[in-house]
């Protein structure tokens, strides 16, 4: 499993952007690590699935609510990563009203989850291999903090914990 001080793996994720903007075309766009992380401080959190109860009712809304405070404390971007396709992540982002606050990043084939060792096997529950629920503060591609949740828990990967860690870093 990835640990504090490690560099995030050089995998490609995807993001669905509905409105063309600064360097982003409409449609799924590759988010190539480490290029996307270079020179940035990222508050990254991962969830087992889009539109799932804890993820939709607590995890994403917490980061949306704390986005301004996180950015004021030095975070350049907030990323929500999930093993879903870019279209689902885009739709979930619209539903959660994340525009300008949280980037919804798809780990469609679980390459990131596997490479970090932060997978969650939900095969018996019809969800397949997913990302475990976690958060990490990443500076210039390196893990500064890592908060991995226990099975069925939502205690350490929330936005308040991340904000306290950003302020302490």
UniProtKB/TrEMBL annotation:
Belongs to the peroxiredoxin family. Prx5 subfamily. It comes from the Bacteria. Pfam families: Redoxin. Residues 2-169 form the Thioredoxin domain. Thiol-specific peroxidase that catalyzes the reduction of hydrogen peroxide and organic hydroperoxides to water and alcohols, respectively. Plays a role in cell protection against oxidative stress by detoxifying peroxides. InterPro entries: PRX5-like, Redoxin, Thioredoxin-like_sf, Thioredoxin_domain. CDD domains: PRX5_like. It catalyses: a hydroperoxide + 2 glutathione = an alcohol + glutathione disulfide + H2O. Keywords: Antioxidant, Oxidoreductase, Peroxidase, Redox-active center. Its EC number is 1.11.1.27. It is an enzyme of class 1 (oxidoreductase). The lineage of its organism: Bacteria, Pseudomonadati, Pseudomonadota, Betaproteobacteria, Burkholderiales. This is Glutathione-dependent peroxiredoxin.
